[in-house]
Amino acid sequence: MTTSSHLSNVWFSVTPLEVSHGKGCWVTTTSGEEYLDFAAGIAVNSTGHAHPKVAEAIATQAQRFIHAQVNVFRHDLLEPLAAKLAELTPGAIDTFFFANSGAEITEGAVKLAKQVTKRPHTVVFSGSFHGRTHMAMAMTTSKTGYRAGHAPLPSGVFVAPYPDPMAPDQDKAVADALWGFDHLLKSMTAPEETACVILEPVLGEGGYIPAPAAFIQGLVERCRQHGILFIADEVQSGFGRTGKMFAVEHYGIEPDIICMAKGIASGFPFAALGTRRELDDKWTKGSHGGTYGGNAMGCAAALATIEIMEDPAFLDNVNARGAQLQAGIRELAKEHSVITQVRGLGLMVGTEFSDAARVSAITQHCLEEGRLILMNAGTYGKVLRWMPPLVVNEREVDLALAAFSAALKATA
Ligand SMILES: Cc1ncc(COP(=O)(O)O)c(C=O)c1O
Known about the structure:
This protein has 412 residues and is of the alpha/beta class. It has two domains: 19-50 and 313-410, Alpha-Beta Complex (Aspartate Aminotransferase, domain 1), CATH 3.90.1150.10; 53-309, Type I PLP-dependent aspartate aminotransferase-like (Major domain) (Aspartate Aminotransferase, domain 2, 3-Layer(aba) Sandwich), CATH 3.40.640. It has twelve helices and 17 strands. A hairpin with a 2-residue loop joins strand 13 (339-345) and strand 14 (348-353). The longest helix is centred in the C-terminal third of the chain and has 24 residues, at 312-335. It is globular, with a radius of gyration of 21 Å. The structure holds pyridoxal-5'-phosphate. Pyridoxal-5'-phosphate is lined by residues 42, 101-103, 106, 129-131, 200, 204-205, 233, 235-236, 261.
């Protein structure tokens, strides 16, 4: 427990825990209690806490350079990391810009799209979360709480509908959402004024909702038709979280720009955007940047993370554990009608409840009685999201399911 008397009040707290260290999927408090961490730094600690290879890469790099500013000189991990990302990212993406956080990278993506297309507007989707800087806030529609009291936000952001995952007729939900997008282009932002569309292939903060394939493919088609750039925000869904390196691979589409952060460097603050060389060439030199982007220790952490993920057993584990988790939750849903939907890809699993208060009670019970850390999501807080470190093992998933089962019973 902590009394954060000198810390800002602005941070909300999922738990009251004060922790001293972590290992794999476990964190230890300053009073020596162990907790199973299924929040993973909000889908960040992809290789688990303090993976020895990542820790070693950071420590070794710290002896060489902590910060080698990218405008002053180029350190020797920048090109190797960019080359690796060119191999991993879909399609013709071959050129990379680095920053430190998801919000910075989604902002950067929109700045790039505006300069390439010479158009002013951006389209986002209901339920979106792209970060907390002013432009990223303007692009975020998952909860009013993120925006309230911060107006005015930048203009030029338009919100199109996202298909409702709970709609009984999913084909109709997709057709309605695509109609909403077409309508937006006719009624509010003409194609020739629209620089980009930015979409999370699996809606994250908005409720762990994988985009229906027909929706994402319909959007990409429309973007191509109108010369609008398609940006995939894979800040949360990227780097193995959905059982493939990037969630767009589930859909067979190639974004014009891809945004990455969170899992890319196992928790070291690092973010990247990837695009095609011919688009990047239109980004005016010096018109974007940042003091710390491409940080040397971040690059070392990212390279080590990627090396770990390149073992085929890594993604096999994500898929096997995701299937185990979803099967376990579905089994419990048979006895607990308060669970209205189980969905997700890989280890990005959402459980929709009919009642937000029950989600709070369950997360509380899991924490206090099960020593399991879980978080919610969704505009109405009705989604329990499961985002363990991607190295989670079978026993740990079983432990989490047992704690969840006990919490369901105790809070009924
Ligand atoms: C899809 C997505 N984009 C952007 C962000 C913002 O990232 P950051 O908190 O690192 O600024 C998040 C954070 O949750 C996210 O989930």
